[in-house]
Each structure stands twice: as structure tokens, then as C-alpha cells.
Amino acid sequence: MNGLVLWLLFDDGNCSYTKSILENNELFANYDLVKVYAIGINDLKLHPLTKANINWEYKKINLSLANVDLIKDLNNLPSPDIILASPPCESFSMADCSCRMSQTYDNDKWIVRSREWYRNRALTADVPNKTRDFIKKERNRLNGEGCASGLVHIIETFKPKAYVIENPRNSKIWEFLKNHWSFEGFKNITYYYNYDLNFSQKPTCFMSNYSLNLKKQMLKNGYNKNHYTLGNYDERSSIPTKLIADILKQTINQLN
What we know:
Elements: E1 3-9, H1 16-23, E2 33-40, E3 49-51, E4 54-60, H2 70-74, E5 82-85, E6 102-105, E7 110-112, H3 115-122, H4 134-158, E8 162-168, H5 173-181, E9 186-191, E10 203-208, H6 233-236, H7 241-255
Parallel strand pairs: 1-2, 1-5, 2-4, 5-8
Antiparallel strand pairs: 3-4, 6-7, 8-10, 9-10
Keywords: Methyltransferase, S-adenosyl-L-methionine, Transferase
GO molecular function: methyltransferase activity
Organism: Metamycoplasma auris 15026
């Protein structure tokens, strides 16, 4: 039987990968059976779905390296041919640059701001927007680094034919993967509004073991400039379904 197995890692928020695969099932017309596993930590009450030749199922698994049973848990699933992953980006974001906890990930050391630094900043009268919750920042950092590390461990253990990792173009995750894990790939850059004008520009990198020809045309107007400022974290982190379909089409062509 001509089959394909996909793992959609961290696809438990807006479920963008799941939505695109089910909406674009024609991409898999040449396969007899496609098994798709969306994997994340949220307690989603979703039943297995079947659409044409696609069997989709959600699995609740902690994908952080802090999960000592990570590989054991994943070994219960069929090994992946393709991994699509959107690890959490909050702790790696450049948006809060003046208060970002992790400053640099060098080859031999990290520079991480301490609790005392945040305390002193809160006491500095002439600094705007000066306070931060240290516990929240620390929790986000540990979660972000743990998930990124778990992702590398998963890819290196299960050795999929293709993987694609999504994060903002300027995310510190790329520095973390390269300098701390010696893990690199092709950095495929695109703009979300090239695939859906309901999105903002949002320069994004989809790092893969394959080079992808993604759209990156600059637009002056005609798109939703407010998309990134509206909604909750899951809504802001959604990915255009047409973009995912383009990535999958190119990836499947590479495999064949």
C-alpha cells in the first residue's frame, strides 16, 4: 500500500496544519492512505476524522524535552514521513526586545537576564512600560527552550523524510537551534499576506531539510494590517491554509 504518515507538532491551538490538510485533501490523491497525527499538550476533545483517504487523529503528548517519556510516548505512533512543527515562539520573540529574557545564544554560552535585572528595571522611573512578571518570563523561556529542544530530539530520533519548522523570521529560535543544538536547515522566508490578504505581512521562516520556493512579494496595501494586533495568541499564530498547502505540495514533490 502506498501510504504516508504526517506528524503535526504543536498543532493544538488554532490547528492550522490540520485545517489545511483537511481542506486540501487533493494534495494526497496519489496515496492510498494518509495517516495524520496532530500532537500537542492541550486537552482537545476531538474525535478521529476520516476524509477521503486521510485518517486524522489528535494525540495529547508533552513535546518538551522535559518530558522524560517523550520518545516512548511517540513510539506508540507510526513513524513520520513528514513532520510539520510550530513550536511556541513567545520566549524567542523580538517584540519585547528591551525586556527579552534570553539575550543571546552563542556557541559556548547563553546570556539570560536575572530576576534582579527585572527588579532593578521596575525601580527605574524614567523607563516606559518598565515592569515584567519574572515568573511568567521564566516559565515562557523554559517552555520555549524545552519545546525547541524536544523538537530537535524528535527529528533526530525519528528521521522523517522531510521536516518543516515554523517561527517568525526574526525569532531567536533560529539562533538557539544553530548555536546550541548545531541544528540547521534551509531557511525558507515568506510573507503571510502573499497567500491570504486577510493576514498581515508577518515575515516568517519555514526551516526545512528542503529548499522551498515560497512567495515573498512586498505589498503596500490591500491586506489586513491589523491582523497581528487582534485576537488571542492562537488567532495571531494562525497560518494561511494556502501557504501550508503550497509547502505540502512542494514537499511531497520533493519526496517523489
